[in-house]
Amino acid sequence: MSDSPDMDRDRIEQQRRRRVRLVSLEADVAYFEARLEILGEPVTANQRAQHKAFKLLHQSLGDLILKTKLQRMDDG
Question: In the chain, where are the structural domains located?
């Protein structure tokens, strides 16, 4: 039994949204990698706080990317 045209469109739209989300997350990860590289070895308390925050955000986004890629594979 085939899906209705509306269901096909919905599935295609969901896949498109996931691709856009994945690209956006990857861009965010690249941003935080660059910020960490620019920051270098933190010296001040403010720099240490930034470094900690950037690393945490980088890791969280990496986890979201993995989850999104796994979800795409399940849908694929």
Answer: 5-75
- Report the alpha-carbon distance of residue 28 to residue 55 in Å, rounded: 12
pTM for the full predicted model: 0.71
Tell me which H or E stretch contains 47. Answer: helix 45-75
CA dist 68 → 25, 38, 41, 63 (Å): 9, 28, 31, 9
- In the block, residue with structure tokens 């399940």: 74
What pLDDT does residue 70 have? Answer: 87
Task: Tell me what pLDDT residue 76 has.
Answer: 59
Spatial contact of 25 and 64, defined as CB atoms under 8 Å apart: yes
